[in-house]
Amino acid sequence: MAGNREFINRKLHSLLGVIPVGIFLIQHLVVNHFATKGEEAFNNAAHFMESLPFRYVLETFVIFLPLLFHAIYGLYIAFTAKNNVSNYSYFRNWMFLLQRISGVITLIFVAWHVWETRIAAAFGAEVNYQMMENILSSTPMLIFYMVGVISTTFHFANGLWSFGVSWGLTVTPRSQKISSYVTIGIFFALTFVGVRTILAFI
């Protein structure tokens, strides 16, 4: 019974990391990327997202609750799982380890980012270009955001590889090899968008 519950939890953890959390990550990166077009473009995009109907319901049930489960169960996996050298290649063992490390870093980064933006907004602050410009004017925060964004994009992209294996989409060595190349490409593409956005604020 406990084995079945863990199997279901792992499947749910994997699924939520892609849908809806992963989709939200991509959408968030795309919206923030408007910063590269200037302050007005970013503010317009941010205000559009803030004006979506049923925004708080969507944020709660589509973003925060799935993210909370993925984060909590991810921490459990990170501190209980062990590398299996006999089942995975040397490269995959490194990816396994980096997935756990990046998950912890990403959780810290996301929690801080939510505190600085969404929680601040709840107390009356306006989430706009100037807010992000002020945050990133500090060199330590700039480095923190760089590391956080790269960690997040890696965790998502590498998690896509695990998702394919977990859900039986990539079961052959050839399909897993192709998936590795695809997910590496996704990592570089999303990282480019994220880093370019950060640099736009400075």
Short structural description:
The chain has eight helices and no strands.
Structural notes for this entry:
There is one protein chain. The protein is an all-alpha fold. The protein has a single domain (2-200), classed as 3 helical TM bundles of succinate and fumarate reductases, CATH 1.20.1300. The protein contains eight helices and no strands. The longest helix is centred in the middle third of the chain and has 33 residues, at 90-122. The protein is globular and about 50 Å long.
- Strand elements, count: 0
Distance between the amino and carboxyl termini: 53 Å
Number of domains in the coordinates?
Answer: 1
- As a whole number of angstroms, the C-alpha radius of gyration is 18 Å
Q: Could you describe the largest sheet, including whether it forms a barrel?
A: none
Report the uncertain regions: none
Fraction in beta strands: under 5%
Please write the CATH class name: Mainly Alpha
Mean pLDDT: 91
CATH structural architecture: Up-down Bundle
Order of helices and strands: HHHHHHHH
Helix fraction, binned, reads: over 70%
Shape summary: globular
Q: CATH topology, which one?
A: 3 helical TM bundles of succinate and fumarate reductases
Which structural category do the helix and sheet elements fall into? mainly alpha
Number of helices: 8
Write out the CATH superfamily name: Fumarate reductase/succinate dehydrogenase, transmembrane subunit
